[in-house]
Amino acid sequence: MAATRLRWENAFSLIDPQINAEGIHIWPFDPACLVDTRLYIYDKHHHIRMNRHDYFEIFYLQAGELVCRIQDRVFPMRSGDLAVISSTQYHTMHLPSKRATSGRVKAAALYFLPEVIHATDSTGDELEYLAPFLLQDAAFPHIIAARAGISDEVFDLIKRIHAELPAGGVRARLAVKTYLKMILMLLVNHYAGRRGTVETFNRKQRAIEQLRPLFDYLENHYREPISVETAAEVIGVSKPHFMRLFKQVTGQPFVHYLNHFRIAKAQVLLAKTDKSVAEVSQEAGFCDQSYFGLTFRKLTQMTPLQYKRQYSAR
């Protein structure tokens, strides 16, 4: 497919507004074709929140360097590398913070819901296509280096899927599913030596469900003071158990997660309203404006005022 037909979008602008309080990236799939692709550009001033999603993701770094964080593990990525991410993994991609990156950082993402491959009435063999996603344990090697020799082929197939979308007809949907299975077969072969059980995936899903009342609580009460003790009470467990569970599920401490969620709310207010920095600080749940400023700068590499001047709607 000709490069001129590829349309690149800012990753933060598209992804971050779609992340809810649970840290779930809600993707608007076409009901007729539960597969989608996006071509992203990353910039240094926007750090996408840690998030997970109900779909499975294959991420190809087309140009530049990125840091891929999955749970509490950090993986440097270089041009040509792939990342394979399941629906239970909290993760994010961002530019290296200590060093300037020359040129644009560009990536292709393939999203698909597992039922595209494995319907409830399908044969057990089709579940094998999803093994690289279902068997992801704490030591799973999520990054496939370019030198492994499959990433260029995967990227070519992603572009083929991209060219078929939106898949309005039967032929287009068949092509998308065929290209997707070709990609999954490459991953199955690459991870053929891995051992694991589907129970690992199911256990993570149960842990996420246990935290769901807390995420609902955060959406409605993030403007109020929320302590670790309060968070533990919401889901009915002890403070030590809560701290272990939350870190295990999200890959980050509760206070860090809450701060990042509040800063995301603040970014929207700064960019889309005329509210002052002091007003935004209060509305985002920060009682101390100095702490708000320090936290904002740490996560965005800009002060709230600089952010407002640069990104507020003209």
3D architecture notes:
By secondary structure, this protein is of the alpha+beta class. It folds into two domains: 3-196, Jelly Rolls (Sandwich), CATH 2.60.120.280; 199-311, Arc Repressor Mutant, subunit A. It has eleven helices and nine strands. The strands form two sheets. Strands 1-2-8-3-6-9 form a six-stranded mixed beta sheet. Strands 5-4-7 form a three-stranded antiparallel beta sheet, with no helix packed on it. The longest helix has 24 residues, at 198-221. It is globular and about 55 Å long.
Radius of gyration: 20 Å
Class based on secondary structure composition and strand pairing: alpha+beta
Number of strands: 9
The largest sheet has its strands arranged as: 1-2-8-3-6-9
Count of helical segments?
A: 11
The amount of helix comes to 40-55%
Question: Regarding CATH, which class of the largest domain?
Answer: Mainly Beta
Oligomer: single chain
Poorly predicted regions are none
| CATH architect. name of the largest domain | Sandwich
CATH superfamily of the largest domain: Regulatory protein AraC
Head-to-tail CA distance between termini: 36 Å
Q: What percent strand? A: 15-25%
Classify the fold: give the CATH topology of the largest domain. Jelly Rolls
Average pLDDT level: 90
Q: What is the number of domains? A: 2
Shape: globular
- What does the main sheet amount to? 6 strands, mixed
The SSE order reads EHEEEEEEEHEHHHHHHHHH
Keywords, please?
single chain, 314 residues, alpha+beta, Jelly Rolls, 11 helices, globular
Summarize the structure.
By secondary structure, the protein is an alpha+beta fold. 43% of the residues lie in helices and 15% in strands.
